[in-house]
Write the structure tokens for this entry.
Amino acid sequence: MTAYIFAAKLILAAAVIGYASWLSDKKPVLAGFIVALPLVSILALFFSYIEHKDPQASITFAKSILFGVPISYLFFLPFLLAERFHLGFWQSYISGLLLLVVGYFVHRAIMTAIG
């Protein structure tokens, strides 16, 4: 059963990512909206609960997502400021990844503080 659930998760995640990246060329605004939806969070919470049947772990997981989403916006900050600071794609991308590393430690501190 676990192998089937894992395969279902892979196929569903790949389909959402593949569709959004395909759509980004034709309708980038719609593709951005689809990617911004909490589809991954909804699916991950569902599959996690189905697999583990642990309500408390699912609640902690959801809280982690709640605090992680705003912190994940740090990745996009260099892209927002790219024109002002004359950053190219790779400079923005790598800066965003570095900011995510900082964000991880902020997230960990928040999750530790709330228990």
Summary: The chain is about 85% helix and 0% strand.
